[in-house]
């Protein structure tokens, strides 16, 4: 084994590496839909030429000297990571969903780099690629960077990628701060970790039932990004605030239809919060926190739900909670596996669902000359969480996706439909509502740093 080509794995990424269990695989599942037939030789050649710029996709996880390392896979073969499955007939949406569910239950092979592409050759008049990446390699923003690097902005396919955003040309800028500032920040982080660990477990709805590990992935036709953006601008909120409010409305209706009282305790969600500079996305790894948000599921008025979602997310952005949960994952990666599982189960008992949004490519992309029409991504869940909702923007549209344990959500298509309807309900309810006026600027010495997720 060539240990010279190894690099120490961060404790945070190692924590993600060890989160797999028999009910939740820590794998980011995504599907890329393309026009036209697939040219496998061209596709494999393109990926083989571009993907090695990211060493993690040629490395496997090995313990050296008692610590986990990324080590070059000397037996690496790109064709063992890209497999063509020829379909006997044209695959419908239902058929594609069946293929996705089959693949989503398969663990990635631990003795090789933790990613895989399955190419389906007859899907809706074109072809599809199911791209599966273990979360220890990267987060959503890093994955989008990889997709941008693999693809082109036009159909004139060439072997050499554009230098823009090339991993070997990007420069990371590390912030410099004093020991006093670092010390104060770590004290705040410790306080937030303590507070999160002492939260009461979330409301005992059907979303907290025991899981079976039987998963289902669903999605709907995309929303127009401009419609949602117009609503967010009209109300003076972010796209993520609209997303949180819409999901809250959908969960409220879903529970109400099943005879559970939505006006009692609000459900709590683990919402992903990006802490990475976009210019450093090429470094991959995981640079985000999971923040605990009380969803306004106990509020009936849609516009009021949006206001509460926005105010709660703004308060979290101004706190150390995102960095606290990221620090918690680093600490978890230092613990024995059994203690990490205990700590993870303790934290995930505080919420019912995982929410994420990903800012995808703004314009159309092409892979090996084929036009990418749709990009869908599903967020994995960890510990005792079994419901994950995600949206990803791509080329002027927003794609909603739901990944659930069917013991918790036996009819995920209904919950997905309610989420779609909740966006339309919000749009109608906020048409005549004036956004609140911005507050007076803070006095010097009281300025808070704010990190936006997706504007």
From TrEMBL:
Q: Which family does it belong to?
A: Belongs to the long-chain O-acyltransferase family.
* Organism superkingdom: Bacteria
Spell out the Gene3D superfamilies in the cross-references. Answer: Chloramphenicol acetyltransferase-like domain (3.30.559.10), Nonribosomal peptide synthetase, condensation domain (3.30.559.30)
Q: Which residues form the O-acyltransferase WSD1-like N-terminal domain?
A: 13-242
What's the EC number here? Answer: 2.3.1.20
Keyword field contains Membrane: no
**Reactions it catalyzes:** an acyl-CoA + a 1,2-diacyl-sn-glycerol = a triacyl-sn-glycerol + CoA
Instruction: Provide the taxonomic classification.
Output: Bacteria, Pseudomonadati, Pseudomonadota, Betaproteobacteria, Burkholderiales
Query: What does the entry list under GO cellular component?
Result: plasma membrane
Keywords, alphabetical: Acyltransferase, Glycerol metabolism, Lipid biosynthesis, Lipid metabolism, Transferase
* InterPro entries given in the database record: Acyl_transf_WS/DGAT, CAT-like_dom_sf, O-acyltransferase_WSD1-like, O-acyltransferase_WSD1_C, O-acyltransferase_WSD1_N
In which pathway is this protein known to take part?
Glycerolipid metabolism; triacylglycerol biosynthesis; Lipid metabolism
Top-level EC class: transferase
What is this protein's record name?
diacylglycerol O-acyltransferase
Q: Where in the numbering of this chain does the O-acyltransferase WSD1 C-terminal domain appear? A: 285-426
Q: Which GO terms describe its biological process?
A: glycerol metabolic process; triglyceride biosynthetic process
Keyword Nucleotidyltransferase in annotation: no
The record ties this protein, via Pfam families, to:
WS_DGAT_C, WS_DGAT_cat
Give an example GO molecular function: diacylglycerol O-acyltransferase activity
């Amino acid at each position: 084994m060539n240990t010279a080509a190894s690099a120490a794995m961060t404790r945070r990424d190692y924590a993600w590496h060890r989160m797999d269990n028999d009910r939740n695989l820590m794998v980011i599942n995504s599907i890329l839909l393309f026009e036209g037939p697939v040219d496998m030789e061209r596709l494999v050649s393109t990926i083989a030429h571009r993907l090695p710029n990211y060493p993690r996709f040629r490395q496997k996880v090995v313990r050296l000297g008692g610590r986990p390392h990324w080590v070059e896979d000397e037996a690496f073969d790109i064709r063992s990571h890209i497999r063509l499955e020829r379909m006997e007939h044209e695959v419908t949406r239902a058929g594609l969903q069946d293929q996705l569910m089959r693949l989503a239950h398969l663990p990635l092979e631990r003795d090789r780099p933790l990613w895989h592409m399955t190419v389906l050759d007859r899907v809706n008049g074109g072809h599809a690629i199911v791209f599966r990446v273990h979360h220890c390699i990267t987060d959503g923003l890093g994955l989008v960077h990889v997709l941008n690097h693999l693809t082109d902005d036009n159909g004139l396919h060439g072997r050499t990628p554009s230098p823009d955003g090339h991993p070997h040309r990007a420069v990371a800028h590390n912030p410099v701060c004093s020991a006093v500032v670092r010390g104060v920040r770590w004290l705040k982080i410790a306080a937030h970790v303590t507070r999160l660990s002492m939260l009461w477990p979330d409301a005992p709805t059907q979303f907290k039932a025991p899981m079976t590990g039987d998963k289902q992935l669903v999605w709907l036709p995309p929303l127009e990004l401009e419609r949602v953006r117009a609503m967010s601008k009209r109300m003076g909120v972010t796209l993520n605030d609209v997303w949180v409010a819409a999901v809250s409305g959908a969960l409220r209706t879903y529970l109400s239809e099943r005879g559970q009282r939505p006006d009692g305790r609000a459900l709590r969600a683990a919402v992903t919060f990006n802490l990475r500079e976009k210019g450093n996305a090429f470094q991959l790894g995981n640079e985000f926190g999971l923040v605990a948000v009380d969803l306004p599921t106990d509020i009936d008025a849609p516009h009021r739900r949006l206001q509460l979602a926005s105010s709660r997310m703004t308060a979290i952005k101004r706190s150390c909670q995102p960095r606290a949960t990221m620090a918690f994952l680093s600490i978890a990666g230092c613990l024995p596996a059994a203690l990490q599982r205990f700590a993870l189960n303790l934290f995930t008992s505080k919420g019912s669902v995982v929410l994420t949004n990903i800012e995808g490519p703004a314009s159309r992309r092409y892979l090996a000359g084929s036009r990418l029409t749709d990009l869908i991504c599903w967020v994995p869940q960890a510990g005792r969480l079994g419901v994950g909702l995600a949206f990803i923007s791509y080329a002027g549209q927003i794609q909603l996706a739901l990944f659930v344990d069917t013991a918790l959500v036996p009819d995920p298509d209904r919950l997905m439909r309610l989420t779609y309807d909740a966006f339309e309900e919000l749009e109608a309810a906020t048409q005549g509502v004036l956004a609140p006026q911005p507050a007076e600027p803070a006095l010097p010495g009281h300025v808070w740093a704010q990190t936006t997720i997706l504007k």
